[in-house]
What we know:
By secondary structure, the chain is an alpha+beta fold. It has one domain: 3-Layer(bba) Sandwich (YerB-like fold), CATH 3.50.90.10. 15% of the residues lie in helices and 31% in strands. The chain has helices at 2-22, 70-74, 134-138, 152-161, 191-196, 218-222; strands at 78-83, 99-103, 111-116, 123-124, 145-147, 165-167, 175-177, 187-190, 209-210, 224-225, 228-232, 239-244, 249-254, 257-258, 268-269, 271-282, 285-288, 292-301, 304-312, 320-323, 330-331, 336-344, 350-353. The strands form 4 sheets. Strands 1, 2, 3, 5, 6, 10, 16, 17, 18, 19, 20 and 22 form a 12-stranded mixed sheet that branches. Strands 11, 12, 13, 14, 15 and 23 form a 6-stranded antiparallel sheet that branches. It has a 3-stranded antiparallel sheet with strand order 4-8-7.
Amino acid sequence: xxxxxxxxxxTAVLVALGLAAxxxxxxxxxxVTYTASPPAEKTYAPExxxxxxxxxxWPLTGLDASTASPEELAIPAVAVKVPNDSxxxxxxxxxxxxxxxxxxxxxxxPRFIAVFHSRIPETVGPIRSxxxxxxxxxxxLGGPLVFxxxxxxxxxxxxxxxxxxxAEDLGSKGFVRIKGKVAPYNLxxxxxxxLAQSTDFTAPEPQFAFAYPAEAATAALYGTxxxxxxxxxxxxxxxxxxxxxxxxxxxxxxxxxxxVSDEGTxxxxxxxxxxxxxxxxxxxxxxxxxxxxxxxxxxxxxxxYIPIRWSKADRTAPYVIxxxxxxxxxxxxGTTWVExxxxxxxxxxxxxxx
Length: 354
C-alpha cells in the first residue's frame, strides 16, 4: 500500500506540472517609443528682381521698342544736315531726333546733324550743306547722309569715303521748298522719300552703351553734381543746358533763351556728351578732326557730369567713350546730344559745368 501511495503521489505531481504547463501566460509587450521629427522647413527662393532692360530696344536711344513692327525696327538711321543760325530757328522736327551732333563750321556758326530712327517725322528742315567731317561723324550709323549740297572738293572727299549721299544738288528725291520762308531756309525733306532711296541699308548698330535703370548711368552714379552746362563755339554759338529734375532731362537754350521747335516743343536730352575736337582748315573751310586715338570730353547725365576720354578708329568705327581710368561709360536711355566743342585750332571756346 505504501508503494501504491507513492506512485499516486508522483503521478499527482506530474499531472500538476502538466496542468501548470498548459495554463495561459500573459505577455506584456515591450514599450516602443517613437520620437517625432519636426517637419522639414520649406525654403522659398526669392523672386528675382524684374530686369529693367527692355527685351527689344531701339539701338540709338536704348528705349523700349517692344511695340515697334519688324519693318520699323529694320529701317536705317537717317542723318540730316540742319542749320542753327538765327534765321534757321525754330527748326522743324528736331525734337524727334534720337541723336543730334552739333559741329563748328565757318564763321563759328554751329550746325546740326540730326539722326532719326526710332521716330520718323513726315518732314524735316531746314536742310543745309555738307562739310568734310560729316561722313566721319555719322559713318558708324551705316545709313544715308542727307544735305542740300557741297562744294566740289568736299563732295569729292565724301564720295571717296564710301558714305551714301542724298542731296538736292545730286538730284535725289524728297527735297521740297516750303512756303513762308526764304531760301535757303525753305528747303525741307520728305522722310518717306529719303527712306525709299535707302532700302539697301538696315538698322544701325548701337552708338553708345546704356544703363538700366537710368539711375545706374555712369555719370549719374559717380559724377559731380551740376545743374547748368555752358558751351561756347564762338560768339555766334553759345548754347547751354539746364538740368530739369521733373523730366529727368537737360533742357536746351540758345543765348539764354529756351530752344524750341517750330511746334513749340522744348528741345531736351537725357545725355549731353561733349567731345573736344581739334579744328583745322581744308579747302578754306574748318574741319573737325574726328578720327582720333584719344581725346578729352565730358558726359552729363542725371544732373551730374564726369570727364571722359573718347576715340574713333575710322569713318565706320563706333565711338568709344571711357572714364579717365579706361572703364566703359554707360548713358541713360533716351535722346543724346553730342557737342563737338573745339579745344584746339579755335580760340575762346569752352565747356563749363556748374
